[in-house]
Amino acid sequence: MNDGCDTETRQNAENFWIHQLVTMHPFGLNDKVTGIHAAFRGFEHWKDTVGKEPGLPSTEGTLGNLKNDQLFFLAQSQMSCRKKCEYSPDVHSPARSRIQGSLSNFSAFHNAFDCKVGDVYRPKEKCDVWIT
């Protein structure tokens, strides 16, 4: 989803969308959107397998106060965090947009953090691209 908004893709957009759907190459769908859904499905499968989830030790003001689903999304977002100039020549969407774009349309994220409709990470109109 986000790669369609970057400079390089925009310049080569002719036939891009149709070609992407026809070929279905491994990188045809945005890695952030499909990757987080696939990883979360694996995480849910793991939870079903192990039963009670081990948590982190709970200490005031630490990650131990977060639920495991919240820790999953925090870890996913941390992988994309970086300090970068907004005017960088990088052709990809900014990391913040990639994180927000992949999570703001994901119901499991909304449930984990109790996001309300209209919040930044739960827009009134969302785009479901993953069929469950």
Automatic annotation (TrEMBL):
One of its GO terms (cellular component) is plasma membrane. GO terms for biological process: protein processing. It comes from the Eukaryota. One of its GO terms (molecular function) is metalloendopeptidase activity. Residues 34-129 form the Peptidase M13 C-terminal domain. It holds the Pfam family Peptidase_M13. Gene3D superfamilies: Collagenase (Catalytic Domain) (3.40.390.10). Signal peptide: none annotated. Belongs to the peptidase M13 family. This is Peptidase family m13 domain-containing protein. It comes from Ditylenchus destructor. The lineage of its organism: Eukaryota, Metazoa, Ecdysozoa, Nematoda, Chromadorea.
